[in-house]
Amino acid sequence: MKNSLYRLIVGFRRFREKYFLQEDADGSIYTRLAASGQTPKTLLIGCSDSRVDPAILTGASPGELFVVRNVANLVPPCETSDIGFHGTSSAIEFAVQNLKVENVIILGHRQCGGIRALMSRERRQNATFVSQWMMIVDEVHHHLHAAHPNADDETLCRLAEMESIQVSLRNLRSFPFVQDAIATRNMNVIGVYFDLEQGQLWHFDDVSNAFVRLPV
Q1: How many domains does the chain have?
Q2: Which residue in 109, 110, 141, 158 is the catalytic one?
Q3: Helices 138-147 + 153-172 axis angle, to 10
């Protein structure tokens, strides 16, 4: 057995000891979760990047977060559901309509590979799954290259990582059931940016229309 796989098995053993074998008067955490079902308060849409694990970043316990992860933490615009496959959209629908989450957080991050592929000045001519998916924020590529023609690649990528969160926030609000949840039960829609180089967290402020560093 390869060492990397063995490490995962050892890790699962530690997980089981913590969450299944440690009990209080009501049993283990998973005894309660299995009996009562999940009732997370927050839907978090994050990137598949292995360095940006939502539960680790937030210190969340099992059952606290309903997590959707995809390339570049994107939210597609609302489209008809009878054509194609809509994994991210269906997860958002379930979290908002069935779980009645109170918060939806879009978590972007520094050094995002999907954004780097988007911002490449010589993008691949042949369509790939990633290139097609990144078309969701294609406007970011065109806008930033036009607005900052002399910027270096790292600056462009950082700007794009933040701007793509704003596009996803707009797309999220294009879903009728999201609009309804915001209007009828004050569901929060939040954009957050994690700088994994500096260990900093930023959030998008709707009033100033800019990212503001959180004092954490």
Answers
A1: 2
A2: 109
A3: 140
